[in-house]
Amino acid sequence: MSRCRRRCLFLLEKCRHMKQLKTAHAHLLTSGHGSDTFAFSRILAFCSNPLHGSLSHGWNLFQRIQNPTICICNTMIKAFFLNGHLTNAIHIYSQILVTGLRPDNYTFPYVLKACSGLQSFHLGELVHGQSLKLGFWFDVFVGNSLISMYSSIGNVRAARCVFDEIPFRTAVSWTVMVSGYAKSGDVETARMIFDESPMKDLGVWGSIISGYVQNNCFKEGLAMFRLMQSTGMEPDEGIFVSILCACANLGAMEIGIWVHRYWNQLGRRPMSVRLITGFIDMYAKCGCLGIAKKLFDEMPQRDIVSWNAMISGMAMNGDGENAIRLFSEMEKEGVRPDDVTFIAIFTACNHSGNAYEALRLLDRMCRVYNIDPKMEHYGCLVDLLGRAGLLKEAKELVLRMPDSSRHGGSQEAIAWRALLSCCCSHGQAEMAEDAAERLFVLEHHSGAYVLLSNLYAAAGKHDDARRIRKTMEQRGVGKAPGCSSVEVDGVVHEFVAGEERHLQMEEVHGVLRKMDKQMDDFG
User: Fold this and answer.
1) Which stretches in the chain have pLDDT values below 70?
2) In the prediction, which pLDDT does 482 show?
3) Given this model, what pLDDT does residue 408 score?
C-alpha cells in the first residue's frame, strides 16, 4: 500500500461529519485514488450512518459508478436498510441480479432483513430460493438470516425447517430460534430449544429470559436469571432490562433494588438511556415514585420512552396533576409525544378526575400530532368519562370508534368492557345490557357475564342474574380463577383461587384461622 493511499484511508477513518468526509474524498480524488473501491465503500458506509451521514450524497456517488463491485453494492443495500428505505434496498439487489453480479454472504443478510421489515413472506421465499441456487446452503450467516427473517414474519415453521437443515449451528442460530418461538408465544418450545443448545452464551440466555418476560411469564424469567447467575456468567444490559421489566410487573421491589445494587457492583458506568428507563419503570410500578423521579431528573439525556415511563409512573401512582405538568414540560422541550404518551396522559387525567382536560388532549393528539386514536386510547377515555358519570358521552365515543373486525374484535372489546364496568358502577342496567350484548359477540370471556350478573343481583333482579349465569354455562364460558402474588424475602409467591399447590399452604391457612379468631374476639 502506498504512503499516499494509506494517508487517504486514515483521513476517511477520522471523519466525524459530512464536511470532513467531503474534504477527505476530494483529497482522495486529487491524489489519483478516486477509483479505489475499498476507499469508496468506506465513503458509502459513512454516508449510510443515520446519525452523521447523508444517504442522498451516498446515493448520488453510487449512481456515478459505471460498474460497481459487489462490495460497493452491499454497502449501498446496507445504507438503504439502515435508513429505512427497504424497497430501495430490494431494488439494488434486483439490479445486482440483472447486471450478472454474484451476490455473496454479505449481500443476503441485509436483503433478508429488508424482507423482514417489509413483512413480505413471498419476497423472502424468492431470496431464499436464490441463495440456495447460488450455493449458500452451507453458509451460517445466510442460514441465521433466513431463520431470523422467517421468525420475524411469523412463520416459525419455516424458520425451524431452515434451523434443522443447516449443517453447522452457531450460538446465534440457537439464539434466533429461541427468540422466534418466544415471539410466536410458544415459550415451551423456546425452552426446549434452549435446553438442547450445546452452547449457551449471553445471547442464548438473553433470548430465553426476554422470551419469558415478553410472554408475561415473569417468575420463570427471574428463575432463568438465577440459573444463569449460577453458571458464573455476568448479564449484559439487555438481560438487566428484561429482569427489571419482570420485577416491575410482579411488584418485586426487593429484587429490583438488589438488581440496582448488582449493576453498581459490576462498575459498568454510565448507564444507557434504555437501562435508566428500565429502573424508572421498575421503581414507579413498585410504588417508589420518589426514587423514579430522582433517576429521571438526573438523566443527562432522555428519549420519548423515558418521558413515557415517568408520566405513566406518576399516573399509575395517582399523581395525575404532576403527570399532566410533566407532559407540558416535555412539549416545551420539543419532544414529540407518541401514542403511548397519550395513553399515559389519559390515565393521568383519569386519576385526577379531569375528564374535559382529557378530551382537550384527545383533540390535540389528533389535530396537532396527527396520531390516530387506537382502541387503548378509546378504552382509557371511556373509562375516564364513565368514572366522571358522563356515561352518555362515553357511549357516544364508543360508537364513534372505527371498526376492528380485522383484529377479530379483541381491540374493540377494550372500550366496550370499560363502558360495561362504568355502567355497573353507576347502576345503569339498560346501558350495561347494551354493552354486554356487544361484548358477548366480540369475545368468549367470562368478565362481561359476571359483571352483568352482579349488577342484576345488586339491583335485586335475581331472576335476571340467574338467567345470565345460565347463559354463561350454556355457551361454555368458564370463569377464569383469580390469581394474586406477594413478594416475601425476595421470593415471589403466587396463589390461584381454588388451588392448594403452594408448599406452605397449611401455614397460610393457619395464619388465616388465627386472624379470623382475632377478628371474632374483637367482635
Assistant:
1) 1-2, 4, 8, 33-35, 403-411, 442-452, 454-455, 458-459, 464, 468, 471-501, 503, 523
2) 55
3) 47
Secondary structure class of 486 (helix, strand, coil)? strand
Residue whose entry in the numeric block shows the C-alpha cell 374483637:
522
Strand partners of residue 483? 496
C-alpha closest to that of 455 among 442, 481, 436, 483? 436
To the nearest 10 degrees (0 to 180), the angle between helices 18-30 and 3-14 is 170
pLDDT at residue 49, rounded to an integer: 87
Residue 310 near residue 293, CB atoms below 8 Å: yes
What single string gives the DSSP state of each residue in 330-379? Answer: HHHTTPPP-HHHHHHHHHHHHHHT-HHHHHHHHHHHHHTS-PPP-HHHHH
CA 103 to chain centre: 33
Burial 139-159 (b: 16+ CB within 10 A, else e): bbebbbbbbbbbbbbebbebb
Give the pLDDT confidence score for residue 425 in this predicted structure.
78
CA distances 379 to 258, 348, 376, Å, are 36, 14, 5
The CA distance from 492 to 457, in Å, is 36
Residue 181, pLDDT score: 96
Q: Which three cell numbers stand for residue 502?
A: 403452594
Distance between CA atoms of residues 40 and 42, nearest Å: 5
| C-alpha cell, 130 | 436464490
Instruction: Give dist(CA 253, CA 288) in Å, integer.
Output: 9
Which among 297, 295, 302, 258 is positioned nearest to 279, based on CA atoms? 295
Residues in the chain: 523
Question: CB-based contacts of 101: which residues, under 8 Å, 6+ apart?
Answer: 69, 70, 73
Closest Cα partner for 278 from 267, 268, 299, 347?
299
To which H or E segment does residue 484 belong?
strand 483-488
Number of Cβ within 10 Å of residue 41's Cβ equals: 18
DSSP 196-213: H-S---HHHHHHHHHHHH
| Torsional sign, CA 457, 459, 462, 468 | negative
Give the closest residue to 207 by CA, choosing from 144, 253, 121, 279: 144
CA separation, residue 455 to residues 112, 388, 425, 426, 480 (Å): 54, 19, 8, 10, 19
Q: How far apart are CA 181 and CA 193, in angstroms?
A: 9
How much is the pTM? 0.77
Helix, strand, coil: what percent of the chain each, to 5?
70, 0, 25
Q: How far is CA 363 from CA 342, 360, 401, 417, 462, in A?
A: 11, 5, 15, 23, 43
